[in-house]
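Example with several molecule types.
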Amino acid sequence: MSGELPGGIRRVVNESGIEIKPVYTAADVEATGGSDMIGLPGQYPFTRGIHALMYRKRPWTMRQYAGFGNPRDTNQRFKYLIANGQTGLNVAFDLPSQCGLDSDDPMAEGEVGRVGMAIDSLRDFEIAFDGIDLDQITVSMTINGSAAIMIAMYLAMAEKRGYDLKTLRGTAQNDILKEFVGRGTWIFPVEPSVKLVGDTIEYCAQNAPKYTPVSVCGYHIRESGATPVQEIAYAFCIAKAYADDAIARGLHIDEFAGRLSYNLNIFGNIFEQVCKFRAARGLWAKIMKEEYGAQDPGSMWLRMIAGGGGGGLTFEQPENNIVRGAYYALISALSGTQTMALCSYDEAYTIPTEYSARLSLRTMQLLIEEMGLCDTVDPLGGSYYIESLTNMMRTDIEKIMADVDARGGIVKLISEGIIQAEVSAQAYQMQKAIEEGRFKKVGVNCYRMDEEEKEVAFHPYKDEDARLQIDSLDTVKAQRDAAAVQAALDRVQADAAAGINLMPAIVAAVKQYATVGEITKRLVAVYGRYQEPIRF
Amino acid sequence: MDRRTRVLIAKPGLDGHDQGAKVVVRALIDAGFEVIYTGLRQTPEQVANAALEEGVDVIGLSSMAGSHLPFCRKLKPLLEKYELNDKLWIIGGVIPAHDQPALLEMGVDGIFPTGSKLSDLVQFIKEKVA
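Resulting structure tokens for the full complex:
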């Protein structure tokens, strides 16, 4: 946003609401909190990076989001991306799978395989990851409402193929609290939803200790209208809610905190974004050490995937998104991310084509191979502006977190729809600012052209794929041991009613090829469904 | 008519992206309309029922995940059944140009793809529902 200061100087306030001066000096660093939180990469408080050598040792993992149609189609796209140098997978599920519905559910009609791959049973996991070495390529699953079931299927598939769960790596998004704020693939009410996340943390800590059961998302809260400082503050409050649940079960913070990660957004002002990540890293380390008594440095690391940034891309002049994507990747690299996934330029229209997905990969590879982003750690560290803004943003994040706690805590505020109403009010203000030209978007409110809508290559949706998926589901159902499936489902429901950790029962059920929809129905029978609070 | 124009904003199907729908709701409230927002996961039956029960003048759908055509094909006969086909039917979100003729053919009155201005939407409703 802009305006004018005395003397005709342009006034600049960033999205986080911090006024930016024309010049910064050492005095500003002192005035905003000093240099104590800067430290060294790989040392507490990790502001400059969680590892001493960062990309000098190994570049970030490249993990483009992919998945569509049936598991066979998705398996082919995975192999295409790996052949082009991608180093991790990031699985997109279709909406029925995300909402706990089988492909033959009436609510799934027209949605099977549309925005991601359809998963009904363990059989689909076996097909999707066929021929992919799960030790070489780590798999991240963008799954939330039905995450407990999908984690169970992933672990069962890996075990069946002979991988040792004690060393198996991978990530599930599994951040249900943010689904109530943005993204919307919730199933159960808030309280049992949080309990299920706790079940996965506890189960993985004990059975798959290298697996990351939760990737806490500021990403979607930011997409829904939150400012950068709110994004981090709300994500931290949510992460603490999961940590508190795990601790209430008797786990020690060091038994699980090292396997929590973050999924954060990167669109916006380059310097504000970089400072956001630096501020967040220092603050998270401080919270883990001082509030939770973590001893293991790994528990204090803010490990993150920083990518996407769809909210910054525009429908207008879509090629501009290629350039935006390159800047977003630069932000992410300057911020010391562990993993990067860029939104492809056509993502405002459709599922990315092979061409656009490859372009996103090349964008990251250019930074690694040609632009020197892997040469030195935290290259912006020590800049008066960067250190001052990092200090100011850290202070503001702490203020927002204290305010959330003072108002009853994040779980209460989300349950009542209060956070949702606040971020949507901000999204509305931002939309008005864009329409009135107060917040500039190139190609949208400045440098416009009269043009026909670009014919972007559309990813085809084939009804045939849905039929094939339903046929495959029928085959699985015909071939499995029906009595064993019923017994396994009965156990899921009984364990849910008893309030004990559900993961052993869910793992046993998926091994009998019980489906996502069948297991979800048993859980709904105990928990009911979430009723969305409508509040404006 | 003294009565304020009543607008239903619905999120059809399983798509959970509601930021756009909620922004539209706020803009319509600011413009003086009475707005009923359904929340997520609405079936065609639920949308038609809500439109009937609330006696709305405008039926608005927000679709971001590509299932607008199959959804509208199921909604259309229900709107006819409940004699709601004289209401203003609008849709917004990720609506590709090549899907627009089919939607207009089905009876959709206005299409507001991503990038549309809130003020244009408000103006459109004011002109059509007078």
